[in-house]
Design a protein that fits this description.
seven-stranded mixed sheet; about 300 residues; single chain; about 40% helix; globular; two-stranded parallel sheet; alpha/beta
Length: about 300
């Protein structure tokens, strides 16, 4: 805070609804709402919230109305028979709903400047959004084709024998793989100088990021270079591979996580190391302790 004045934030961006990305922000918005009710002035002003809720993503698709189990997710009801992972997704659907409600009650505009109700990239071409003087976002994902694939995914999920199994298949594959907002941040640093660039990936799959870079025309030869890459999905080996690190190259890599579930996975670190062998680069980890301790994790990686 600056003195007694509320903190002024130009934008708050939530990549998608998974609990590890949204829980703290729901708590923050709840506190802001309480303070607004008590004092008339929340401790923070947010000029816009960029966030695609599950209702928005599925609103024009058939899945939510064809399945009682998927539809129940929209109200935060956990259908019987779901695995723990899918239960977590259902719970985060409700969190996304709460976040949007708090934003509306606080008068925070939703997806302002994004060019529509959803933050998304076009099927072809490039979408550049001026955020402030010298600061531009290139929206890379999700794109229209990925969102159109929701119905296709639902048709595949319907082959499962029960509504709960259908919901599990649809929710597990759709939310992490198709809904995550991906942006390229470009900050000017003076005439004649190349902008500073950061690729923020959320939990998007590496294949989707590569596809989006190609579709936008930013990558004409299958490769792309940035100053900083926020490695997707906290360094999970389910969302990236060595080919991705060979094609998307950065001077600095940020792997954000708390070390639980063995993340970042040793495979991910090994793929990055192999892809950049003999080249200088920096890797920044936010966790201080992994499942077995960060020191042990890095020691195991070095032994490979």
């Amino acid at each position: 805070l600056r003195g007694n004045d509320p903190l002024d934030l130009r934008m708050l961006l939530v990549s998608h609804i998974h609990a590890d990305h949204i829980t703290g922000l729901v708590d923050m918005f709840r506190d802001m709402k309480h303070e607004d009710e008590e004092t008339g002035e929340p401790f923070c002003r947010i000029r816009t919230l960029w966030f695609n809720s599950f209702e928005q993503l599925t609103g024009s698709n058939t899945a939510a109305i064809q399945s009682s189990a998927v539809g129940a997710a929209l109200t935060g009801v956990v259908p019987a028979g779901l695995e723990r992972w899918t239960e977590a997704v259902v719970a985060s659907v409700q969190q996304g709903h709460d976040l949007r409600n708090y934003a509306t009650q606080l008068g925070i505009p939703l997806n302002q400047g994004a060019g529509g109700a959803l933050v998304k990239a076009p099927k072809t071409g490039i979408k550049r959004v001026k955020i402030a003087d010298g600061l531009t976002f290139v929206v890379l994902g999700p794109n229209d084709e990925q969102l159109d694939a929701l119905d296709t995914d639902w048709q595949k999920a319907k082959l499962k024998p029960t509504p709960s199994a259908q919901a599990a298949d649809f929710l597990n594959r759709t939310v992490p793989n198709l809904s995550s907002i991906v942006v390229l941040v470009e900050a000017e640093r003076g005439a004649g100088k190349k902008p500073i660039s950061m690729l923020l990936t959320g939990d998007a799959g590496g294949d989707h990021v590569l596809e989006s870079l190609k579709r936008s025309g930013l990558s004409t030869d299958g490769t792309f270079r940035v100053d900083l890459l926020k490695v997707m999905h906290h360094g999970s080996n389910h969302s990236v591979d060595q080919d991705f690190f060979e094609r998307v190259v950065a001077d600095h890599y940020v792997i954000s996580g708390n070390g639980r579930h063995g993340i970042p996975h040793g495979d991910t670190l090994a793929w990055l190391s192999a892809a950049r062998s003999g080249e200088p680069y920096d890797v920044y980890l936010t966790n201080r302790q992994g499942a077995e301790g960060l020191t042990e994790m890095l020691a195991a990686f070095e032994e490979k």
